[in-house]
Amino acid sequence: MNISAWTWILTVAGLCAIIGFDFYLVARNPRDPTLRESTGWVSFYVSLAVLFGLGLFLVAGPQYGGEFFAGWITEYSLSVDNLFIFVLIMSSFAVPKIYRQKVLLIGIALALLMRGLFIMVGAQAVARFDWLFYVFGAFLIYTAWKLVRHKDSDEEEFKENAALRMTKRFLPATNTYAGASLLTKIDGRRVVTPMLIVMVAIGTTDLLFALDSIPAIFGLTKEPYLVFTANAFALMGLRQLFFLIGGLLDRLVYLSTGLAVILGFIGLKLVFETLHHDGVSWAPEISIVASLAVIVGTLAVTTVASLVKVRLDRKAEPDEPDAATSDPVREEVEAD
Q1: CA–CA dist 116, 206 (Å, integer)
Q2: Pseudo-torsion of CA 131, 145, 287, 68, nearest 10°?
Q3: pLDDT class of 113 with cuts at 50, 70, 90
């Protein structure tokens, strides 16, 4: 794709405007959103992504349009899995419910900024060193194997990363919240509040997730513009998605398995296509249509199988409370 500087500028400006408007709404009325409100906003962001993809179909052709949709769906599904960790972070730092939207929004904005830098570096690297695709492919296959083998390990506890530990070590902090403020004064000394710490936790944790998602999307498209926009549209609706399915995450029992299949498939696709590019005649080239079919089909099977299993388990143990429906956050949202 031949993307002009003006196209980049307009795209980034448009995304910043959307995020800025979202932040204005959150700052004006901090609260725990209702189920209807979250559904509306998620539908809005999904519609924006679909319209953007259709625009690419018309302007750039079906190949690039298909690559965007494949990348966006993959990033969005990986983001759903990441919500498990966001729930744990919110619980670990005891974030007041009315401020969870602000924490998520700023954390996601930081993640988008850092991912943009990561994508620029990655795009330059893969343009100069073709052998990196072998590394990306092997890493994705390893990640898929690790997901299948330890699919429940990321749900047990939240472990602080190096950036978060450094922040807590070098910045004087208080253990109590001061509303939504990032800084407060204690005995005349300015200190940071847990609000800043938890935002760093969300942002840096999402950046660590990019170690899986960025190589995955480079396996679907080599265009930096598509990589960035797919990531941006996947992240923009993540705040509302947190409140929409926060109480339903336990029902997606096979999500990690489905994501493992997708990451493993993309890893093999990367290796095969690189081998084909290097002159290995037997290595197939997998089309973006086939890739999109595998991704969507896997997610559909995963979702249906998860819901069926939860329903069968509920019938087998009628006296056991349903963890997905007994979530206190979900009950309060529905009560609103």
Answers
A1: 13
A2: -90
A3: confident
Q: Distance (Å, rounded) from C-alpha 148 to C-alpha 151?
A: 5
Give the Cα separation of 199 and 181 in Å (integer).
12
Of 38, 43, 87, the residue nearest 250 (C-alpha): 87
Cβ atoms of 247 and 110 closer than 8 Å: no
Residue-level pLDDT at 54: 93
Cα(270)–Cα(265) distance, rounded to whole angstroms?
A: 9
pLDDT digits (tens, 9 = 90+) for 227-281: 889 888 887 777 777 777 665 666 777 877 888 888 888 888 878 877 877 777 7
Residue with tokens 């549209």: 233
Between the CA of residue 218 and those of 29, 140, 141, 158, 214, what are the distances in Å?
A: 38, 11, 14, 28, 6
Domain residue ranges of the chain, discontinuous segments joined by +: 5-335
With bands split at pLDDT 50, 70 and 90, how would you rate the model's confidence at 328?
very low
Candidates 105, 115, 106, 133; CA nearest to 213 is 115
Specify which residues 185 forms β-bridges with: 190
Specify the pLDDT at position 193: 79
Q: How far apart are CA 296 and CA 269, in angstroms?
A: 16
pLDDT for 177 beyond 60? yes
Burial (CB count <10 Å: 0-12, 13-18, 19+), residue 190: exposed
| 212-243 exposure pattern, b = at least 16 Cβ within 10 A, e = fewer | bbbbbbbbbbbbbbbbbbbbbbbbbbbbbbbb
Cα–Cα distance for residue pair 45/62, rounded to 1 Å: 22
Smallest CA-to-CA distance from 174 within 189, 158, 159, 157 is with 189
DSSP states of 152-216 as a string? TGGGT-----HHHHHHHHHS-B-SS--TT-SEEEETTEEEE-HHHHHHHHHHHHHHHHHHHHHHH
